[in-house]
Each structure stands twice: as C-alpha cells, then as structure tokens.
Write a structure and sequence with these properties.
It contains seven helices and no strands. The chain has 170 residues and is mainly alpha-helical. The chain has a single domain, classed as Four Helix Bundle (Hemerythrin (Met), subunit A). The model has no long low-confidence stretch (mean pLDDT 95).
Length: 170
C-alpha cells in the first residue's frame, strides 16, 4: 500500500484530507530512513583498510539495519490500517443507551489496538540505537554526518511514535 508509493505520491497522500498516512506512518518512515543511513555508513566502511578491524561488525550491522528498515516499511502500512477499527467504531449507531455503551467500548478497543503499532515502532528503534552509535563512532568518517542524521531521524521517529501512542490513549 503506502510503502510502495513514490515519494511524491506518498507526500501528496499525506498532505490530503484523508487520515492515513498520518503521524504514526511518518514515524515508521522516519525510522526506516534512519536505518537506511545507518546501513549506508556501514556499507561505506566495509572493505576499507582503515576500518578493517570492524569488518565483521559492519557486515552484521548491514544485515540488522536492512531487517529493521524493511520491518519499519511494513509498519507504515500497519499503522495506517491500525486506526481502521477506531473509525469503524465511530460509525456504530448511538441511539440507545445499549448502542452508546457498545460504541464506546468498541472505540476504546480500537484505540488500544491503534497504540500497538507506534509503540512497536518506538521500541524497535530505541532497542537498535546502538547500531547507529556504532557507525557514528567506528564508521567511515567521510559519512559521519550521515550517521548523525540517522541518529536525529531515529530520535524523531521514536518521539513521533510515542506521541501517537499518547494521543490514542484518550
């Protein structure tokens, strides 16, 4: 779905008056960008004499970063669809007290489900920050700023995802 959009189409859809993709999907995308940069710095360090002592670490890091990047790309769509249950619940009838109670319950269930994806995004990224730190401290110095942008992007992704968790816990 959204993960397969062109950058231009994704940004146009985000800018539209349609709810998805929203902040949670953008947090996942920002995380994927962070690990793309991390992977790039590692790749720029592999097979370089100056960084030979960390060759195996960089190779492992490339694999881990690629998996994270792909998981976070999936989370773009997972987040977009996670809010569907909330939207369905808001459309339930509310004429009687019983309908109002059921509707309210379904809305709360939907919100509980909707927090799982952004919470997972924040957790995944937070638990993998050491990959970014490793390339910043040990990677190709010509790509240091790329590693720093990866770190800033990861931070933004974590905060964005957690803001989405917070807003859905109303």
């Amino acid at each position: 779905m959204f993960k397969d959009y062109t950058i231009k189409d994704f940004l146009n859809q985000t800018a539209s008056n349609e709810p998805p993709p929203g902040g949670g999907s953008i947090a996942a995308l920002t995380g994927a960008i962070a690990y793309s940069l991390t992977e790039m710095v590692a790749n720029l360090s592999i097979n370089k004499e100056k960084y030979a002592e960390f060759q195996n670490d960089f190779e492992s890091l490339v694999s881990k970063s690629e998996k994270l990047r792909n998981d976070l790309l999936e989370d773009i769509d997972n987040d977009a669809s996670s809010f569907d249950e909330v939207m369905k619940a808001f459309k339930l009838p509310k004429s009687t007290d019983e309908e109002k109670k059921l509707r309210s319950s379904k809305i709360q269930e939907g919100y509980k489900y909707a927090v799982k994806i952004p919470l997972g995004v924040a957790t995944k990224i937070y638990e993998s920050l050491e990959l970014i730190e490793f390339v910043i401290h040990n990677g190709n110095k010509n790509a240091l700023t790329d590693g720093l942008v990866a770190l800033m992007s990861a931070r933004t992704a974590i905060l964005g995802a957690l803001f989405n968790v917070k807003i859905n816990f109303i």
